[in-house]
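HK97 family phage prohead protease
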Amino acid sequence: MGGHRQAFGLETKYCAFGDGLALSDCVIEGYASLFGAVDQGGDVVQRGAYDGSLRRIARGGRRVKMLWQHDPTRPIGVWDEVREDEKGLYVRGRVLSEVQNGREALALLEAGAIDGLSIGYRTLRSEKAAAGRSLLEIDLWEVSVVTFPMLPEARVQTGEDAVSDIARDLAEAFAAAREQMT
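Structure:
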């Protein structure tokens, strides 16, 4: 079920919501890709694989597209933040409830019926790996909300996890401020 698909030179990979996706009003966030994790197709995305693509997108004044089920005729929102960090490809954006597909996506996300993120990309550089490929450079086209995840072990944030993360971040900020004051 789900996984890796290639059509017209565009590849897609899926990642499950779990501890890495947070849903708040119409804002969603999570990891669309995790570095070093072997997906169901045997591919492993390496740290830095998205860097060049993200820089080109930013230089061009463009954004990574937010689509519904990889369908280019069904955009459902905008990704306000797409970046690499030590864990993977982090995304944060808004599902537009003013758009019919956005309303449907939100209803399904809130109900837990849809629980996946998926990347649409073109491989620019890879090496053969034991089970598949080691993806070294990726041209990122879009991140979709999808039904079936390719990378089920990817961590997704639930609402409770997001609150815990905010509380931890605030505690760390207060501790750092106290240190600077003494």
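Helices lie at 51-59, 100-111, 159-181.
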